[in-house]
Amino acid sequence: MPTLYVSSRIEPLLDAAWELSQDLSDDGGWQMITPNRNAAQTLGVTAFSLQQLAQDILNIRQIKIAPPLVVHDYLKEALRQTLELQDPEGMARTWQPTVQVIFRSQPDLCLGSNSSKRAQEVFAVAQAYQKFLRSGGWIDQGELFWQAIEQQSQQKSLMIYGYFNPCPDEVAFIEAIADENSIFYLLAGESPLFAPQNTLRQRFKRNGWTERYLNNNKTTVAPPSRWLSRSFLGASGITPEPEQKPQVMAQVYANQNAEARGVLAQVKQLLHQGVLSRDMVIVAANDTEWGDRLMDIAWEYGIALRLPYTIPIAETRVGAWVKLLLEVLDQHWSFELTARFFQHPLSRGLGKNLWAQFQQSRPNNFDSWRSVILAEQNIDIAPIQLPTEALRHDWLTYFQSIFDLFQVRQQARRWAKESLAYKNWSEGLQELPELGTAAITWSQFREEMLTHLNLLQTVAGPGREGIELHNLRSIVGAQYDYVFVIDGREGNLPKPIVNDAVLDFYERQQLESQGIHLTSALESAQKETFDFYSLLQTPKKSFVFSYAKTFPRHGSYEQSEPSSYFQRLGLIPEPTSLPIIPSPEIARQVYLRRSHGDLLGTDDVLIKAIHAWQVEQQRESSGPPNEYDGVVGIPFDYETHWFSASQLTQLGQCPFKWFANKLLKLGEIEEADSELDPALKGSLYHKVLEIALGAYQQDTTINLVDNDRLMEWFQQAEKYIADEKNIDVTQFRAWEYQRQELSATLKRVMLQPDFLPESVEILALEREFKGKIEDLKVRGYIDRIDRREESLVFIDYKSGGTIPKGIKDQNGKAKIDLQLPLYKIVGGVSLYPGERVDKIMYYSLSKAKDISPRQVISETELREILEGFKQYFQTGTYPVAPDRDREACRYCSNELVCRQGDRLERKGV
Ligand code: SF4
After folding, report:
1. Among the four given CATH numbers 1.10.10, 2.60.40, 1.20.120, 3.90.320, the one describing domain 638-896
2. Most CB contacts within 10 A, which of 5, 56, 561, 570?
């Protein structure tokens, strides 16, 4: 007779199973079965699950489980045909778990006619989907055990450990395949918590199984699991002797980050004490939510951490690279996207060190990218030009050639996770031809690739060794010396019971009358509690249970309460501090806050950090600016420097702006444009006007608003821009229309009587001047110089409609214009000595009118201002001091360096 061993704690079950596994270790007739690798390790046997056993049976019969992409595709088709849906892509993902639950619940898909409409729909979809699967020779994963039962021909001697809450299909499989020697270990007892297990006991008894109850306590010192189990089941009067007191701790942290740091610091301390990482485990109800955070901190602390759960390949670097590649191909190699693609770490095989080259030439289609890469790397990417249609097999060959070209496999080897992701991805791709043999278009193939990225899974954090992060179910049956259970907040542990989106609990209840049993809300809640009880069986030496007082939700933080399990275990969470300084980074934080810093002075990073910290404190204080805030104290030889009107304006608006741009040379890097930005538009306007008025100088009868002529002048200006600035504006989007708009603007300007009065004589266009004022050398270009009625008029075109912001006046407002007086005084004297400059004006091209300021400062005032500027150069003082309304900051790219903000008020700016 097969035997059922029962105990309300894992300890006796494990002892019995371990002894038996030792006795049977040389007996090849037995198969040890555990649900996970961790339980197998605890028992010291090779991991082999019921699932693998069932799969082996089906393999012999050559029955295959449908791969994820086939499942998705067939389910989509079933939904489309059965429910007449147009776009079942998203629905397939929602329905798939429900359909699998239906498959697992019973061996066939029979449903009575008096069922609800919803239930009938679900079963109809499941039946249609099953039919598609069969036509391709597949079964669904959910049918695994039922199919194995059908196909098995021989019973086996099994020792089954760790299946403490088996599903109906697992139970049926065990009954079908276990021979009379077989042994099943079940966690069960008198408590209502064990109701499903006790029902199973009755069933096994009815089917002739012998039951034995185990209750031996081999160890004298109670492990935490014994104490925790009894507390959880409500046993009263548990007061262990002090020397037998188990190590059980309840901890509370301010937030999840502190919790992760606190737990990993304890792990590090244990590692220092010689505890092996395989003897510890961290458990979170939502392990996938904690993986990244713990991984980052573990890296900082120098702890090896493994994340055994799986994630979609889309969430890996390999996935991101493939998605980017698909976008690049889809967007025809547009500049921004492709440049980003070549910057990806996995594109390093080709894109390394090419950024500057890309910026300069801005390739924007396949051919131009091809030329750049050919020129720079001597590699021809011609083979990866996109076909429009191909067989799936040929698409795969095409993509493989791209992977090879970029050496993605070799690049991915730098990270174990990415290497595995690449392997899983390329192996998974081989399933694609299963979807059909007809040729498909690029957009169809692209969709399949994207779906594939989300369906295919890979291990989130692989590795040979390290402490593992698990959820409650992935370590059932295992034991560890040290167990850390994190995120024990109410609403998370136990997990809230969520209704199925397709078949809710009410529908499930209705199906009960049809003899179809699906998990009810009550059973789900019981399962959650049972899982936690199983977890309490895990610790052998220490159990640390923690939660954080706040948790992130919808972009902010919410308060949390401790899980009711704390109270049920009689535990009161207490704040705790880091037991050790777990990383150099934390040590630096501690030293940094102490006034004496690193006493030994041996840590270079810390020395620099302390210095940076002090600089920062000074910067934020109300103290005067120092050398880190623009007051460098190094005189500047201003007499040899050529100033422009805009440089002097910058200096008068905010000295730091000029200092950062001209002395530190932090000005923005000029990038080739792909859009007509205001500066480029201004250059184009200026050039067209220069060419047009140049022609007018030659022949004053010329029609300046003639469309053909304007077109010709624009083309000459465009060519000039292409030659001088390496920007081909004709490639800009809808350039023909943009040019028409620009041309209309200039036409309107040229028709204005004040733009070109009849008596005017144009003396010069874009004329450079150089001169000296108050020992400062100044140069610039005057857009146009007219002689009007015996006097000179200087004109400066402005593309916009407002006067440019000037330097600060006495009230700190950016109101004083420097350009016009400088042009008049320095330009006038240097170009036309002895002549009178009667007028100097700003002419707005967008408004087609003179927008000169009403008042311009006098020469004396200008000289006084420039004399003041010399103080800055002589003393090397360039404080961050923008105008009151921060107009100067609006077109300044130095914000990250100057750190303007509230701090300026503290400094009295
Ligand atoms: S952002 Fe403002 S404060 Fe900073 S340098 Fe520029 S103008 Fe000065």
Report:
1. 3.90.320
2. 5
CA 820 vs CA 185, 646, 779, 780, 842: distances in Å: 94, 11, 13, 11, 8
- Please check whether the two domains, 3-63+146-218 and 242-304+467-572, share a CATH topology: yes
Q: 618 alpha carbon to ligand 1 midpoint, in Å?
A: 18
The answer to whether residue 42 scores a pLDDT higher than 90 is yes
Whether 656 lines ligand 1, by a CB cut-off of 6 Å, is yes
128 Cβ closer than 6 Å to some ligand 1 atom: no
841 phi/psi in degrees, rounded to 5: -140, 155
Q: What is the pLDDT of residues 361-370, one digit of tens each?
A: 788 888 888 8
Please indicate whether residue 662, judged by its CB atom, sits closer than 6 Å to ligand 1. no
For the CA of 650, the nearest atom of ligand 1: 7
DSSP 473: S
Mean pLDDT of 104-118: 86
Residue 657 CA, closest ligand 1 atom number: 5
d(CA 59, CA 360): 58
Is 895 touching ligand 1 by the criterion CB < 6 Å? yes
312-461: CATH number: 1.10.486
899 CA: nearest ligand 1 atom: 4
**For the domain 3-63+146-218, what is the CATH code?**
3.40.50.300
Q: Was domain 242-304+467-572 assigned CATH 3.40.50.300?
A: yes
| Centre of ligand 1 from the C-alpha of residue 560, in Å | 43
Q: For residues 96 and 75, is the Cβ–Cβ distance under 8 A?
A: yes
What is the residue extent of each domain of the chain? 3-63+146-218, 67-139, 242-304+467-572, 312-461, 584-620, 638-896
What is the distance in A from the centroid of ligand 1 to the CA of 623?
19
Q: Cβ neighbours of residue 342 under 8 Å, at least 6 residues apart?
A: 350, 351, 354, 355, 358
Of the pLDDT bands very low, low, confident and very high (cuts 50, 70, 90), residue 695 is very high
